[in-house]
């Protein structure tokens, strides 16, 4: 997986790992627009960093629904310097979504499913940019759209 530096188009390999308690010092509301230490305890928190670096560029909280065999993205955020037209890196959200898709494939093949409930203004963005399907209140990935995200963001080495 990789992200792209917007100014230079240089690709940087990234890793996604679980958030550990010491990470919360760097996960502030000012940087990620949410109090991540208040996320429901049934969620698992993941961070995206450039390989070999500690600076957290993206965060995701996922909730596993084993009874219904699907992964729900509860929260998804890029750091403030990586949002909007002047962002430093692109592909952060795509890499995190692809990671959730990989988890769904690992746990729920042959019918993996990933969903999220977007803010109203972002729904069309998720549909257009990531090929998510409209489930009315939520958007989701399954079958071919889910595999497309994996190919584009998870398995593509650039």
SSE blueprint and pairings:
Blueprint: E1 2-5, E2 11-18, H1 29-32, E3 44-50, E4 56-65, E5 70-78, E6 89-90, H2 92-108, E7 113-116, H3 123-130, E8 133-135, E9 138-142, H4 143-155
Parallel strand pairs: 5-7
Antiparallel strand pairs: 1-2, 1-6, 2-3, 3-4, 4-5, 7-9, 8-9
Structural class: alpha+beta
The side-by-side strand order for the widest beta sheet comes to: 6-1-2-3-4-5-7-9-8
Give a count of the beta strands, DSSP E runs of length 2 or more: 9
Q: What would you report as the Rg, rounded to the nearest angstrom? A: 15 Å
What is the helix fraction of residues, given as a range? 25-40%
Number of helices: 4
What is the H/E order?
A: EEHEEEEHEHEEH
What overall form do the CA principal axes indicate? globular
Keyword list:
alpha+beta, 9-stranded mixed beta sheet, 4 helices
Structure description:
27% of the residues lie in helices and 33% in strands. The chain has helices at residues 29-32, 92-108, 123-130, 143-155, and strands spanning 2-5, 11-18, 44-50, 56-65, 70-78, 89-90, 113-116, 133-135, 138-142. Helix 2 packs across helix 4 (143-155).
How is this structure best summarized?
The chain is of the alpha+beta class. It has helices at 29-32, 92-108, 123-130, 143-155, and strands at residues 2-5, 11-18, 44-50, 56-65, 70-78, 89-90, 113-116, 133-135, 138-142.
């Amino acid at each position: 997986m990789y992200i792209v530096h917007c100014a230079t188009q240089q690709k940087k390999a990234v890793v996604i790992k679980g958030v550990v308690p010491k990470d919360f010092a760097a996960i502030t509301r000012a940087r990620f627009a949410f109090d991540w230490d208040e996320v429901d305890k049934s969620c698992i928190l993941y961070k995206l960093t450039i390989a070999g670096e500690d600076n957290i560029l993206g965060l995701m909280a996922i909730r596993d629904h084993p009874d219904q065999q699907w992964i729900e993205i509860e929260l998804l955020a890029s750091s403030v310097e990586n949002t909007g037209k002047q962002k430093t890196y692109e592909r952060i959200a795509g890499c995190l979504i692809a990671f959730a898709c990989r988890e769904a494939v690992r746990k729920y093949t042959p019918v993996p499913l990933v969903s999220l409930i977007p803010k109203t203004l972002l729904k069309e963005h998720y549909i257009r940019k990531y090929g998510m399907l409209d489930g009315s209140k939520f958007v989701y990935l399954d079958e071919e759209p889910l595999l497309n995200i994996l190919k584009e963001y998870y398995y593509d080495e650039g």
